């Protein structure tokens, strides 16, 4: 009965079965503030999908790439090779000395924390389940479709070109746009630099798709994973891959896990000042399968909140992209169909993505 009392008092009563309106919104952050001793059934995963503490984690080494070496001609080729190997074998690596000031990262996380600490009514001004909306606050992964909720609240907003979108971002906290905007601009520069390196590691020209990248999109997903009273029963986010070319993750503590080529879950260690780079579906398609989009999930803990800021780089909404012609030949036939960002949004708006990956719909049958 406690959850019904909570909804009546804080969120309003559901008007009908299956209602997914703002009145039925259950916030993981609000549940944490109530000090609940157990999680609602809606968040409980089937036993086979839970992050069992009894399964030993595999010690796959996640590369930490020092980007300062890119300015040293004597070692730059080695760094590019290291990034290429990481993209091929894991689809994920961390970067240090990336030239984003620690103060810029700290201030972005600071305003993210302040946003999630706002009263629920204030955050609900931005609530939406429409995945096409450029700015939306929500919970889980896709609240309207998820059979089991994730222990996570988020605010997502389009971020590039920043001048087109910043006026739609949260106005509370009052310095959110300023501080998050500084981080967005800095990470956009880093993403472009990383894409050039990744293209070169594939044997492509550094300026490959330069115009498409400059005319592309950037989405920021700002996440809060509250302390959870039963972390062994749920996840902060279910296993999935990102749709874009690459993403850059800033986090306050460990919790991210990636699936390696042997289908083992590997924890990504927290490294102070480092950023986590993950390949998305667009990169797997563009590389014609040479590089892999990484499947990942977020675990939760019973001690403290975890915050993360995920910057997702994609091509323009309706810009079709497929395997690079330079990477298609008799030995490596075309393996993926073309697609665009809008098609991905249409897919997740109509499907529970824990039951099937968008990428799988793009794979071509081998003759």
TrEMBL record:
Mind telling me which Pfam families this protein's record contains?
Answer: 2OG-FeII_Oxy, DIOX_N
- One cellular component GO annotation, for this chain's record? nucleus
Q: Which domain of life is it from?
A: Eukaryota
The principal localisation class reads cytoplasm
Q: Where in the cell is it found?
A: Cytoplasm; Nucleus
Q: Extract the InterPro entries matched here.
A: DIOX_N, IPNS-like_FE2OG_OXY, IPNS-like_sf, Oxoglu/Fe-dep_dioxygenase_dom, Plant_2OG-oxidoreductases
Where is each Fe2OG dioxygenase domain found?
Answer: 215-315
- Enumerate the Gene3D superfamilies for this protein: B-lactam Antibiotic, Isopenicillin N Synthase, Chain
Citing just one GO molecular function, the answer is: L-ascorbic acid binding
Q: Which UniProt keywords apply?
A: Cytoplasm, Dioxygenase, Iron, Metal-binding, Nucleus, Oxidoreductase, Vitamin C
Free-text function comment from the UniProt entry: Involved in the regulation of shoot development and salicylic acid (SA) homeostasis.
Question: Family assignment?
Answer: Belongs to the iron/ascorbate-dependent oxidoreductase family.
Q: What is this protein called?
A: Flavanone 3-dioxygenase 3
């Amino acid at each position: 009965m406690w959850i019904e009392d909570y909804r009546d008092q804080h969120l309003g009563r559901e008007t009908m079965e299956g209602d997914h309106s703002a009145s039925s919104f259950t916030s993981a952050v609000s549940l944490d503030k109530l000090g609940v001793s157990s999680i609602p059934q809606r968040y409980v995963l089937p036993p086979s999908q839970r992050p069992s503490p009894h399964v030993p984690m595999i010690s796959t080494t996640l590369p930490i790439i020092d980007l300062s070496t890119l300015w040293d001609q004597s070692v730059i080729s080695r760094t590019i090779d290291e990034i290429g190997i990481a993209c091929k074998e894991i689809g994920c690596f961390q970067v240090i000395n990336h030239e984003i000031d620690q103060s810029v990262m700290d201030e972005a996380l600071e305003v993210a924390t302040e946003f999630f600490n706002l009263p629920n009514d204030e955050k609900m001004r931005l609530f939406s389940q429409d995945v096409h909306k450029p700015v939306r606050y929500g919970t889980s992964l896709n609240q309207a479709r998820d059979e089991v909720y994730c222990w996570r609240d988020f605010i997502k907003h389009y971020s590039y070109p920043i001048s087109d979108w910043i006026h739609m971002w949260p106005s509370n906290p009052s310095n959110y746009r300023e501080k998050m905007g500084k981080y967005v601009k800095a990470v956009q520069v880093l993403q472009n630099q990383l894409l050039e390196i990744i293209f070169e590691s594939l044997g492509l020209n550094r300026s490959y798709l330069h115009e498409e990248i400059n005319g592309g999109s950037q989405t920021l997903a700002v996440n809060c994973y509250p302390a959870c009273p039963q972390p062994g029963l749920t996840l902060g986010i279910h296993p999935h891959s990102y749709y874009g070319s690459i993403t850059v993750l800033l986090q306050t503590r460990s919790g991210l896990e990636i699936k390696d080529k042997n289908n083992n879950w590997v924890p990504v260690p927290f490294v102070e000042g480092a950023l986590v780079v993950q390949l998305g579906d667009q990169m797997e398609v563009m590389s014609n399968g040479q590089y892999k989009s990484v499947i990942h999930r977020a675990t939760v803990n019973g001690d403290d909140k975890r915050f993360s800021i995920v910057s997702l780089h994609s091509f323009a909404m309706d810009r079709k992209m497929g395997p690079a012609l330079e990477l298609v030949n008799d030995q490596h036939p075309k393996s993926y169909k073309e697609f665009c960002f809008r098609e991905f949004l249409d897919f997740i708006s109509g499907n529970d993505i824990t039951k099937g990956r968008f990428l799988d719909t793009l794979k071509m049958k081998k003759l």
